[in-house]
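Shift notes (night). Ran Peptidase M24 while the centrifuge was going.
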Amino acid sequence: MSFVSLEHMPLAETQDRISRLRTHMGELCPEASGMLVFSRLAIYHLSGVWASGVLWVPACGEPVLLCRKGVERARLDSPLERILEFKSYSQLPALLREADAPLGDTAAVEMTGLSWSMGELLRSKLPGVNLVPGDTALAWTRAVKTEWELAKLRLAGMRHDQALNDTLPDLIRPGMTEREIALAVWDAFYRHGHQGMMRMQNAGEEIFLGHISAGDSANYPSVFNGPLGLRGAHPVLPFLGYAGKVWQRGEPLALDCGFCLEGYHTDKTQIYWADESVIPEEADRAQDFCLQIQEHLSSRLVPGAIPAELYRDCIKIVLANDMGEGFMGLGRNKVGFLGHGIGLAIDEWPVIAPTFDRPLQENMVLALEPKIGIAGLGMVGVENTFVVTPKGGECLTGERFGPTFPS
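Came back to this:
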């Protein structure tokens, strides 16, 4: 049988990404002779294939992709030339020597790409090789998007906006349960090409569609690292929406749902009300304030801006306007960031947070999400996905920032 790849990543894409990874390695782990990459997400980013195995990126020379299974698929999808099979980590030194890409005495490792037990196994199978962390170099490599990636993100953002603002309002109304609304969101998203799978990269983090929070569900205690609470489907699946919670006419409906197209994510939060007449003055004022913070932040997404400084500047504005209590979450749901990088995963670098001092670069992509929780009512606010440009943030998820009203 003859098969053709569904999408063959251009060789220039992999070469550009690997070149940038080597630059970051030279800065952050200069003693390493190369990097061992294990997570399928990072392997895909650098090779164009969703592979089970390990990618070796030497400091110079051709990378080598080693597959435990699926070598035929890898050779279909990836532009890389050196694609081999292996069964055990103990084979890596010999296989890489034969490929003229030896490990060397010190190798950087994507440590978050392995469980602790697999990391210990790797150490035991590579005696004499000093393993050093390489995750930060990988994170900064993925933070800057190529034009190829931006084209996918722009398409995802456009479809995301259409689903939430054109299609979904015809499918929902007060009186529906959160679960019914979640099914309507899936319907709208699938109509616009959402591929159903969304990914997070930080250990233990999961997501399924996103958060469907009617009324005070938005302030329900949450384990998720975001400001919007929710009851969720069940304690073991705190996502989607609760079948026992009905969206009432006088409540805000907060939908924080990511969109994924060809592996790339955009993030957007839309607030829905039954109609304008039911919006309390406090909620209206808080919504307007969140829109002002989004505008303030997005206009400053320029190369050279320092995320930590942007965060501190916004917090000063929040406190000066007496909006601190529910800003970025009510009570213990409060989080210490205003936005996050996004791409192949929802939780990428950089983060608009106090600890991120590395300057922004052109073509970084971030989701900005100023939100305010209101006790006894729910949450209002906004979230959209922006790309860093010399003129400020370019919004990828449309200009309709809400609130939105069902048809």
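The chain has a mean pLDDT of 97. The first helix runs from residue 11 to 28.
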